[in-house]
Design brief:
The chain has about 140 residues and is an alpha+beta fold. The protein has three helices and seven strands. It has one domain: Nucleoside Triphosphate Pyrophosphohydrolase (Alpha-Beta Complex), CATH 3.90.79. About 25% of the residues lie in helices and about 35% in strands. Strands 4-1-6-5 form a four-stranded mixed sheet, sandwiched between helices. Strand 5 and strand 6 form a beta hairpin. The chain is globular. The chain starts with a strand and ends with a helix.
Length: about 140
C-alpha cells in the first residue's frame, strides 16, 4: 500500500467559519469541497509543505499558523496521513489569489459537516475543529 503524507491549512474567521476550496471540476476522488494544501515533498517538513502549498494555491505567504494534529484515512490503495494546520483569516481573504480550484467559500462548521468532501476523515477533522476553535 502506498503512503501519501499531506499538509493542510484551514483558515478561520472571527465567527469560526472555515474557508474551503471548491473542488468541483478538479476533483480526483469525487469531492466537491476540500481543505487547501497538498503532498509533503521528499525532504520537506509538514511546516515547509503547508507554506509552499499555500503559496502555490493562493499566492499567499503564510506566516501565522498553528499545528493542530493529524488524521489518516485509506482511499483505494493509498493510506493518507494529513498534518493539519490552522490560521486566522483576519483580513487576508482579500489578499488571496486563488490559483487552484474554481472558487472558495466560508462555511460554518455545521455547514461544512454536511458537504461532500474526500472522506469521513475530512468531516471528522471539521468536528474536531469545533473544540480546537473554542479553546
Amino acid at each position: 500500500m502506498k503512503i501519501r503524507k499531506v499538509a493542510l491549512i484551514i483558515f478561520y474567521d472571527e465567527n469560526k467559519r472555515i474557508l474551503l476550496q471548491d473542488r468541483r471540476g478538479i476533483s480526483k476522488l469525487g469531492e466537491e469541497w476540500g481543505f487547501f494544501g497538498g503532498e509533503i515533498g521528499k525532504g520537506e517538513t509538514s511546516e515547509q509543505a503547508v507554506v509552499r502549498e499555500t503559496k502555490e494555491e493562493l499566492d499567499f505567504d503564510l506566516k501565522e499558523y498553528k499545528y493542530v494534529g493529524e488524521y489518516s484515512y485509506k482511499i483505494k490503495d493509498i493510506f493518507v496521513i494529513g498534518k493539519v494546520f490552522i490560521s486566522p483569516l483576519k483580513n487576508n481573504l482579500l489578499k488571496f489569489k486563488q490559483i487552484e480550484g474554481k472558487n472558495m467559500q466560508l462555511f460554518s462548521l455545521e455547514e461544512a459537516e454536511k458537504l461532500k468532501m474526500v472522506c469521513e476523515g475530512d468531516i471528522e477533522m471539521v468536528r474536531r475543529l469545533k473544540k480546537i476553535l473554542s479553546d
